[in-house]
Design a protein that fits this description.
A hairpin with a 3-residue loop joins strand 5 (about 530-535) and strand 6 (about 540-545). This protein is about 55% helix and about 5% strand. Helix 5 packs parallel to helix 8 (about 170-185), helix 10 (about 215-235) crosses helix 11 (about 245-265) and helix 15 (about 365-380) packs antiparallel against helix 16. It has 20 helices and 6 strands. The longest helix is centred in the first third of the chain and has 39 residues, at about 5-40. The chain is mainly alpha-helical and about 550 residues long.
Length: about 550
């Protein structure tokens, strides 16, 4: 018989432990929120954001699907929740493409671009924090609260997640919805009736956010079958041996399909859509897209995505500018841009999930989705950034909890050290998360020597450039080669294009976005070669002095 004192003490310790973990979760999410909010406030528009902001304004005011059909509506509807009561002005008679639309909404309609952009970014920030809770709960289900806390710490300090989670873009939302659906399928092993429908909702949200989620369909089908078979084998639910998995897959699929349809109907209940006359045709296996059980604008959007994939895109990797994709681009870029502590702990956790028998059932849920999605992304033609694989640090964080599950003192010490190393690396880059690279590759100041585009310079530092020029170089002649969708004059930058005049006339300050520099033609290369670098802004823009 237990003594009353011991029973009371054990109960008190259990309650204290629960509150301690709750405080850890709150602290980590609060740190992440501060990092993302600071980044959101300080950064000007990245290249994609004005398109999404302009499109969501058209959704709200005109209920039209004509803009940005290459992406489904849900992610933009989420972005639009921040703009719902912002009183955004847009001329109903405006005619132009989606890039012109974004410029019109942010800069040419009397709106405050900084205010609109922050309001559009806030819903994605909130969603990113909620996905942090999913990471914690997923890892806790696998390994306990200590593992959950370690996983959340890696997620909360991930520079790639912070950088992309603070933008009004679609990469973090689609990755987070996929992660959520996988976690719910894991829980469906024990409570299939409750969690299979929820998994269908989450995966439908992923499909309704970005078409890259289509690559996860085989994985979701596999995991539904595994969860149903486990539930049947353990007696949780009496599924039919053959038809049970089929019915479960069909149910999850129908719910996911319904979410996609609802996202389009939420924009336009009449679903008015005209297929563009210049819509690219598809051939071979690609014609399967026309059989997708989704609205016509979704299927036409898949055609547009195929057209993007058929283009020849420029890339930059370790000092070499090239055309066409490199199959190993994303793994190498992830190696550069993932904190070393997170990389080591995540890979070690993946090994543990496969090697330890009691954790092995979790391997298909944690490792297979990341592997399949990464393989699909590696076949793409756009070597433009690790944002296309931002799901990797999410699943890697969950996998890292496997090390804690070993329940050895050395494992706890190693996990704590590696989490601390990752956290310090992340804090050192604050608030320049987009150009982050780890210590093995020189840190954020040297990322532009190895990677480009949204890995480094996505147009985000135009406002910081304006501040730097005003503080250190007032009154000087400015020549600007800027890669981005912001409008320099809107931030008080009075600059000319050096590529439109004779080289000998370019005197004063030459300001060049780093992504423009790595893809420079002979003329720009000559201008840079005859200049002296004197300053940099945000690790993405270099200021040169022209004699």
């Amino acid at each position: 018989m237990d003594r009353p004192g011991r029973t009371f003490g054990s109960s008190w310790l259990r309650r204290h432990r629960r509150w301690a973990f709750a405080l850890v979760v709150v602290a980590l999410l609060a740190e992440m929120a501060v990092a993302m909010l600071t980044t959101a406030v300080e950064q000007t528009p990245t290249i994609d954001e004005p398109v999404y902001v302009g499109t969501t304004v058209v959704y709200q005011q005109q209920h039209s699907l004509r803009y940005n059909p290459e992406h489904p509506p849900l992610g933009k509807l989420i972005i639009g929740t921040g703009l719902a009561f912002a009183g955004v002005h847009l001329d109903p008679a405006f005619v132009g493409d989606q890039s012109q639309l974004g410029r019109q909404v942010l800069y040419e309609s009397g709106n405050d671009p900084a205010r609109l952009l922050l309001l559009a970014r806030l819903p994605v920030i909130v969603l990113t924090l909620l996905f942090g809770l999913v990471v914690f709960l997923f890892a806790r289900d696998l390994t306990g609260p200590v593992g959950g806390s370690a996983a959340l710490a890696l997620y909360a300090f991930s520079p790639d997640v912070i950088a992309n989670g603070s933008l009004a873009t679609l990469d973090v939302p689609v990755a987070g919805f996929v992660l959520t659906s996988v976690w719910l399928l894991w829980r469906a092993r024990r409570r299939p009736v409750r969690y299979l429908p929820l998994a269908g909702l989450a995966f439908g949200a992923a499909l309704a956010t970005k078409m890259s989620a289509l690559a996860a369909i085989p994985v979701v089908v596999l995991l539904v079958v595994l969860s149903v078979r486990h539930a049947r084998r353990t007696g949780v639910f009496d599924f039919h041996r053959v038809f049970g998995p089929l019915v479960a897959v069909a149910g999850v699929a129908l719910i996911a399909i319904a979410v996609v349809w609802i996202s389009y109907l939420a924009v336009d209940p009449r679903l008015r859509w005209e297929t563009p006359p210049d819509l690219p045709a598809v051939h071979g296996l690609r014609t399967l897209a026309d059989w997708l059980p989704f609205p016509a604008p979704y299927r036409d959007g898949v055609h547009l995505q195929f057209a993007f994939e058929d283009q020849v895109w420029g890339g930059f990797l370790f000092g070499t500018h090239y055309f066409g994709p490199l199959w190993y681009y994303l793994p190498v870029a992830l190696l550069v841009k993932t904190p070393l502590g997170a990389l080591a702990l995540g890979l070690a956790g993946a090994v543990v999930l496969v090697a330890v028998p009691r954790l092995r059932p979790a391997a298909p849920y944690v490792l297979v989705p990341a592997a399949v999605l990464l393989s699909a992304a590696m076949t793409g033609s756009r070597d433009l950034g690790v944002r296309y694989a931002v799901f990797v640090p999410m699943f890697l964080a969950v996998a890292a909890a496997g090390v804690v599950a070993l329940r050895r003192r050395w494992a706890y010490v190693a996990a704590a050290a590696l989490v601390g190393f990752a956290a310090v690396s992340s804090l050192r880059t604050f608030p320049y998360y987009l150009p982050y690279s780890n210590e093995a590759f020189g840190g954020p100041a040297e990322t532009h020597l190895r990677l480009h585009d949204s890995n480094v310079d996505w147009g985000q530092d135009l406002g910081r450039l304006a501040d730097r020029l005003g503080q250190r170089y007032p009154g000087e002649r400015i020549w600007l080669v800027y890669k981005g969708s912001g409008v320099p004059s809107a931030y008080g930058i009075d600059a000319a294009d050096p590529l439109t005049v004779a080289p000998e006339r370019v005197r004063g300050l030459l300001v060049v976005s780093d992504s423009a520099a790595v893809k420079a033609d002979d003329r720009l290369r000559a201008l840079i070669g005859g200049s002296t670098p004197i300053d940099e802004v945000g690790h993405s823009i270099t200021i040169y002095r022209r004699p």
